Amino acid sequence: PQEIVSGESEEESNGVNLMEFSDEILLHILSYVPCTDLVLNVRRTCRKLATLCLDKSLTHTVLLQKDYKVNKDKVKQLMRDIGKEIYQLNMAGCYWLPSSTIDHVTRCKNLVKLNLSGCHVTSLRLSKMLSTLQHLRSLAIDVNPGFDASQLSSECKATLSRVLELKQTLYTPSYGVVPCCTSLEKLLLYFEILDRSREGFMLSGQLMVGESNVPHYQNLRVFYARLAPGYVNQEVVRLYLAVLSDRTPENLHAFLISAPGSFAETGATKNLLDSMARNVRLDALQLPKAWINGSGLLQHLKFNNPFYFSFSRCTLSGGHLIQRVINGGKDLKSLTSLNLSGCVHCLAPESLFRKAEDDIDSSILENLVVSCCNLRHLNLSAAHHHSSESIGSHLCQLLSRLKHLLSLALPVCSITDVAANVEKPPTASNLVPQTFGRKVRIGIQTYPRNLADQANQKIESSVFWSLMGSLRFLETLEVIGSSFSSAMPRNEPAIRNSLPPCVRAQSVGDSEVAAISQLTYLQSLTLAQLPNILTGSGLINIGLQCQHLRTLSLANLGMMGKVVYMSALMDMLKHCKCLRDLRLEQPYFCAGAQFFQALSHCSSLQRLCIVSRSGTLQSDAVMSFMANCLEVIMCHMFMGESLTVCKNLQQSIVRSFQADRPALNVVIFPLLHEDLTEVIRDVPMRHLDEITLFKSRVAEEPPNLWW
């Protein structure tokens, strides 16, 4: 704000005065400023801004979910100044705010939408707050151990009875507030219940005493459930589904259950699906793989104008996909998001006698592309989609027709040129075993380090180069090895061994990475298990050309015994001024002074996660980096250092920077330590879900599932 005032004379001398712009233009500019800054700082600079900063267009919706500088006092002052003007308040993931902060939300008497996911809220505080919010129609909360629905007042229950949309994250077996929400139209459930307590006791999926009230689903239009790994989560979600199986809501149009691993079908769930097949027409569908595999369910379900399908990890064949879902191309122009991750046979006519590595049938993909021409989000990862050398078009050539794509996930082996892959002799890196054994000294081919020189090579003629050139508006890209698995899975010890990359992927390396630099509007990039990375030169091109890049995740690139792309990565980071999230997973990664000096150029960086078996770090370099990068609020490092080194560094960071960064979350811990899972459970869900744990995120959920 001081800069605005002090800069007026300079602006006037150049013939430009910010205050001479129209109110409409100024309001548009101010819409990019966090609401706390507008109300508490900017409006105090001059009379004109004092009026504009309180305009309804700026105070109607207040977003605090990623305002990492906000604290309790700022929230208190904000609610005092504009509480009555706020209709939508998003505080999701504000884990650093004390629970007493929620008391100030009672000033927002006109609230219609409220998101408190990830905030500390007791049942008593929730009751007091909701009793005053009579206009509330949309609510998101966490249900933690100790939650007691009997503590909710009658006024609170009256408010809940008018709520139409509820998002509930469960950390303990409970119905939460669902039985009180008698008018629900949209219900989103996130099950994060652990099988064991901190003391090591096995937990039960049975609900707490007093939880016998039954949910009311008669008006339900959207049902979504996402389960973290664990048996208890499956037990509890069955209790929620039991009511649905008795009577399926007539207006149900979206039914989605995301469950990892095996989630067996029961008599009750079969009755539910049979009832859905008879009585409803769906627009969005996702089911556990065991509910679809081997059943004729998809043949009987009816769809209206579907916008989202997820058949992740199902054994659905391409023949069934075309016949039962795409229905010969009829009425699928409405489909905008499709998740076929881990659906290994979805591009083959049948799956009975087919191996996962066999060539795809390009006619199936062509049918899919023609039928679903308006797709914006497509996930084909975690499968071997090998294009035929002689029959049909290449997968990349067919996907280039999807001009509306905004996000795309592909397996590494799907982007290689078939002819080049067959004719090209093995490179030195192909001959190096992908293990952690003795390092083999090899000659490194020299690659050009800028885009102009790359263009002189034949990479422009590759199918992947052409694909990247045709998807100019792509914002999210994931290229992940079909056999890649992260060294840090959920709720389990760290994985010590990784599977070798697919043979077809052996030629994918620097030139393919350079092709990605054509994506001018790219915001999020994930590259995992690209075996032929020799220098990482393509990363520099991305840093230069993709100036909107905000999220970068790199894992297991090149040889596993050495970080061959370190020099290129450091050059790349010097150009990433908008980068906010960086995740690196690579054995033997050296997080030293040179790396952190390069990373310090990323002035917008907020979150850093490094996962490295046998990796090393330099404590002084980390401290210097944290001092230079003032926006960093998350530092997660799982390396090969000793527990003592890790604990000392973690304590030093917290002691030095916590006071000025209220949201600071630091976890530095040995990757292979037996207590890793206990440490992980204390990481805020926002960081754990968005960056710390590796996963494919394209088409993971329907678009605009929650505001």
UniProtKB/TrEMBL annotation:
InterPro entries: F-box-like_dom_sf, F-box_dom, FBXL18_F-box, FBXL18_LRR, LRR_dom_sf. GO terms for biological process: SCF-dependent proteasomal ubiquitin-dependent protein catabolic process. SUPFAM superfamilies: F-box domain (SSF81383), RNI-like (SSF52047). One of its GO terms (cellular component) is SCF ubiquitin ligase complex. Residues 15-62 form the F-box domain. Gene3D superfamilies: 1.20.1280.50, Ribonuclease Inhibitor. This is F-box/LRR-repeat protein 18. It comes from Eudyptes filholi.
